[in-house]
Design goal:
Blueprint (H helix, E strand, L loop, with lengths): L14 E5 L7 H12 L3 E7 L32 E4 L2 E7 L3 H16 L6 E8 L6 H4 L1 H11 L4 E6 L13 H18 L10 E7 L13 E5 L24 H5 L4 E8 L8 H10 L8
Parallel strand pairs: 1-2, 1-5, 2-4, 5-6, 6-7, 8-9
Antiparallel strand pairs: 3-4, 7-9
Helix pairs in contact: 1-5, 2-4
């Protein structure tokens, strides 16, 4: 069963700040930057100088580097923040994902956009961020940091792939996840702002890339929960697909060619209530059902 999808207007050209926890020179992030830019968006990449996976919401002032950036993408003794010599929109921050995202929003946006950004995106992360992993994920940490700065924000993660340098051949999974992230972003923002309710973020996890799951059209997006529903404790779920019991992200992502879409509260990184889920569902024009 599939919910009715509303027709989408032309893509809005947005100012987007993007970050991750795998590092500014990682191929998933660079592929996403290229895909979003090719779709007509103005994008600032502001991400850690090194891999900071598992750092959660840690936030400390950036400091000068002693060692080179990851993959030798900047030399030893580089300043605390810097950018690609040929593209000032590609920036490293020698600190944590949350710090990097905030630097992109509060400093780089003023310099490069001359306006506040419209949206924040973290990832796609190399590896999924499901359930309790959201508490430790730097990808989620960057996303929540953006919400606290007043922006709507999305965290993207994917099952397939390995950490790959920006100057190596781009893995097919990086290209697929970048295209899916762009597709989802355009879908979320097509109706115009507000893209998300205040204090809300979205956690999206992409499935394993495989035969029959290797193009954007193959992947179905399903509304899910970050954590299993516990009666009398968990917030109620919106009623979709004939039920008010949403599947968990883990069930969705490992049930085939499905991507999980969970609606979270920035205040505690837990599931939002049915009212917020319904707002997001309407903004997206409906989602698919898990067969």
């Amino acid at each position: 069963m599939q919910l009715l999808l509303l027709s989408l207007p032309l893509t809005l050209a947005l100012n987007i700040v993007t970050s991750n926890d795998d590092g500014w020179a990682e191929s998933n992030l660079r592929a996403s930057y290229n895909s979003l830019t090719s779709a007509g968006h103005s994008v600032i990449l502001s991400a850690p100088a090194e891999n900071k996976s598992g750092s959660g919401s840690r936030d400390e002032p950036p400091i000068p580097l002693i060692e080179p950036c990851e993959y030798d993408s900047c030399p030893a003794d580089s300043p605390a923040t810097g950018f690609n010599a040929s593209n000032s929109h590609l920036n490293y921050v020698n600190s944590y994902p949350a710090t990097s995202m905030k630097y992109g929003i509060n400093t780089l946006s003023e310099q490069l956009f001359h306006d506040p950004p419209d949206l924040a995106i973290a990832g796609p992360n190399v590896g999924v961020n499901l359930g309790v992993e959201v508490f430790f994920s730097g990808t989620v940490g960057a996303t929540v940091a953006a919400v606290h700065e007043g922006l709507p924000a999305i965290a993207f993660s994917g099952v397939s792939g390995r950490r790959t340098a920006w100057n190596e051949p781009t893995p097919a999974s990086s290209l697929l996840y970048a295209a899916l992230a762009t597709n989802f972003t355009d879908r979320l923002t097509a109706k115009g702002p507000p893209f998300l309710p205040e204090g809300i973020w979205i956690n999206v996890n992409f499935p394993k890339m495989s035969d029959g799951c290797d193009s954007v059209d193959d992947v179905k997006f399903v509304l899910s929960r970050i954590f299993p529903h516990v009666p009398l404790i968990s917030p109620d779920n919106v009623h979709v697909c004939g039920s008010d019991r949403l599947p968990t992200e883990t069930k969705v992502v490992f049930s085939g060619c499905y991507a999980s879409v969970s609606v979270g509260q920035a205040s505690n990184k837990r599931d939002a209530n049915a009212t917020m889920q319904e707002v997001v569902l309407k903004q997206l024009g409906g989602l698919d059902c898990l067969d």
